[in-house]
Specification:
Chain lengths: 119, 115
């Protein structure tokens, strides 16, 4: 299995709702990432998990709360979002978080994303 | 032709011709440069990478050129096919102080293949 899966594919939520995005990989990768991509823009890194621990938070507002229950799963909990948070949320994984692979590029595999609309 | 403005930069190419997509990067400390392809409704897909101590690398129908002097990266696609239509992102791989990998994407170029 060489893919990253994300659910749901589409999500519409109100500003007072609480929802969660899910990401799963079965490649044995030990690093997982959340990216946000606005229309016609490049993906922007939000969070990095390394060996199931949050390693990097790119100054993301607290209304986004990541969680890594185990090495295969990554969640993004959403609460009190704003309309400007509407975007494609991409999950990615890589074999290593970068610490070990000092001599080679540590390829990131991306899921298809969740298209989020906040009303 | 190529256009830049309010919309994503777009490159239109006739099927069978070669495509060249250009990218400027900013971080001279980046150790790898990567090209990703993103088709509509999908996540980015890795195409090819090049290490910072190289100036050229070839893959199947694709070649990446790196010019560190002017911080410029290009992707050449030979014999462009309709399936090559997508948005192409160049990306820089650098590292946080703790050694964790960070991939920073460029603005992207939309490639349109004309049948």
């Amino acid at each position: 299995d060489t893919e990253v899966t994300q659910t749901p594919k589409h999500l519409v939520m109100g500003m007072t709702n609480k929802k969660s995005l899910k990401c799963e990989q079965h490649m044995g990768h030990r690093a997982m990432y959340w990216y946000k991509q606005k229309a016609k823009k490049p993906p922007e890194l939000m969070f990095v998990y390394s060996y199931e621990k949050l390693s990097i938070n790119e100054s993301v507002p607290s209304r986004f709360s990541p969680e890594c229950p185990n090495s295969s799963l990554l969640n993004l909990h959403l609460h009190a979002l704003q309309p400007e948070d509407s975007a494609l949320y991409l999950c990615a994984s890589s074999q290593f978080p970068g610490l070990e692979a000092r001599s080679s590029y540590n390829e990131q595999f991306f899921g298809p994303g969740t298209r989020l609309t906040v009303l | 032709g190529e256009s830049v403005g309010l919309h994503l930069p777009t490159l239109s190419v006739q099927e069978g011709d070669n495509s060249i997509i250009n990218c400027a990067y900013s971080n001279s400390a980046s150790d790898y440069f990567i090209w990703y392809k993103q088709e509509s409704g999908k996540g980015p897909q890795f195409i090819i990478d090049i290490r910072s101590n190289m100036d050229k690398r070839q893959g199947q129908r694709v070649t990446v050129l790196l010019n560190k002097t002017v911080k410029h990266l290009s992707l050449q696609i030979a014999a462009t096919q309709p399936g090559d239509s997508a948005v192409y992102f160049c990306a820089e791989n650098s590292r946080y102080s703790g050694g964790y990998q960070k991939v920073t994407f460029g603005i992207g170029t939309k490639l349109q293949v004309i049948p």
